[in-house]
Specification:
By secondary structure, this protein is mostly beta strands. The chain is 9% helix and 50% strand.
């Protein structure tokens, strides 16, 4: 019995030594692979030493004949051979005490016909100062690691409110506008690419006085998947009315980019109250939550998940740029239950259509809209909440 216990403890200690405990993974880059044909490619963008490295395949599993690291002293080491499962992180063992990797060489192929992307993540750990001193810190790494030294990452991410989102397909730049800023004075603007990396060649802010300013996103800067990248607002004007973006999906697929803000109001979740006495309903103090865009006359389903729960007694929909026709709205509550609200009516431009929340459930988490532009153009629908 004692021998079995000793063997089990020995195995546990061996496993603990091979994988870093509580590793804080930061995604630093990615490489693409096509179907079946092995491809030799390199990744060499490191800002300093690392505690450990990890790989994660997306869209398909990936077969690797070899993954090799070259260190700063010129030595090389084989890190991995075999299959990278889809959507599962695989930690790589760095042999010896060398931690300054110069490049990683891949000889791999995707097992799926659509190809695959492999994310490269690093546990930077005690080497953060080394990365901050990198010549690429201001240009690249500071954007990828905005929460370093700011305490709990989840709490910092929660400071941002999702104002709206736009979809980009393929590697060709597409220009689009997010115009849901009415009534908001913001202290910060950030972008987050959700399901792929993205690159934006230009991002411009328009202010209430009509002036426009390019924001500090260098041409070709990478927006890493699921990374919040903050953009500086120049000057003292904070009354932003819209953001224009020229972006594309980095890996040629579809990418959704969220536009996020922090407000100057004391309670960001309450937003700026806006009254709409022309609606013909009881005057209500509305808080704007965000905006969704619809194009053409065919119904398009879209969801908005920035509700944050709270005691929401009614939801308001306000078309901007065109009339809109909405057939249905679905509300998802905190317990996961959904309720459909039939609309089937024309929503007049710049007027709020109110939908009351019946019953005792008030913790709305998400709304799904099925709408289109009434005159075949583009329409943005601003989403408001009245909180009891």
């Amino acid at each position: 019995m004692r021998r079995s216990t000793l063997l089990a403890m020995t195995a546990f200690l061996a496993m603990s030594a091979s994988a870093p405990a509580m590793a804080a993974w930061d995604r630093i880059g990615s490489v693409d692979f096509s179907y079946r044909n092995d491809r030799q490619t390199q990744y060499g963008n490191f800002g300093g030493s690392v505690e450990a490295l990890a790989l994660q395949a997306h869209d398909s599993s990936v077969m690797c004949r070899n993954v090799t690291a070259t260190f700063s002293n010129g030595q090389t080491a084989s890190l991995f051979r075999g299959t990278l499962p889809v959507n599962r992180q695989v930690t790589l063992d760095l042999p010896g005490d060398q931690r300054l990797v110069r490049r990683i060489d891949f000889n791999c192929h995707a097992n799926g016909r659509a190809g695959a992307t492999v994310d490269i993540s690093a546990d930077i750990g005690r080497y953060q100062t080394e990365w901050r001193n990198s010549p690429d810190w201001d240009r690249l790494w500071a954007r990828l690691f905005p929460n370093w030294g700011r305490g709990d990452n989840n709490r910092r991410d929660a400071d941002w409110q999702v104002l709206g989102s736009e979809n980009f397909q393929g590697r060709r730049d597409r220009a689009t506008t997010v115009a849901g800023f009415r009534g908001r004075s913001v202290t910060g603007i950030a972008l987050r690419a959700l399901n792929d990396d993205a690159r934006c060649m230009r991002v411009t802010a328009t202010f209430a006085n009509g002036q426009t300013q390019p924001l500090n996103i260098d041409r070709g800067d990478l927006l890493g998947r699921n990374r919040i990248v903050q953009l500086d607002l120049p000057g003292g004007d904070r009354n932003v009315t819209r953001i224009d973006m020229n972006c594309h999906a980095e890996h040629g697929r579809n990418v959704t980019i969220q536009v996020m803000t922090t407000d100057t109001t004391p309670d960001r979740r309450q937003g700026n109250n806006t009254r709409f006495p022309d609606r013909g309903i009881n005057q209500v103090n509305w808080s704007m939550l965000g905006t969704k865009s619809f194009e053409g006359r065919a119904d398009f389903a879209s969801n908005f998940a920035g509700m944050r729960g709270d005691d929401i007694t009614s939801i308001g929909l306000k078309p901007v740029g065109d009339d809109a026709f909405c057939s249905q709205m679905t509300a998802t509550f905190g317990n996961g239950m959904k309720r459909n609200f039939a609309i089937n009516t024309n929503l007049v431009e710049n007027r709020v259509f109110q939908i009351d929340m019946p019953g005792e459930r008030r913790d709305v988490q998400q709304v799904d809209l099925n709408c289109h532009a009434q005159h075949g153009q583009r329409v943005a629908i601003e989403i408001y909440a009245n909180k009891g």
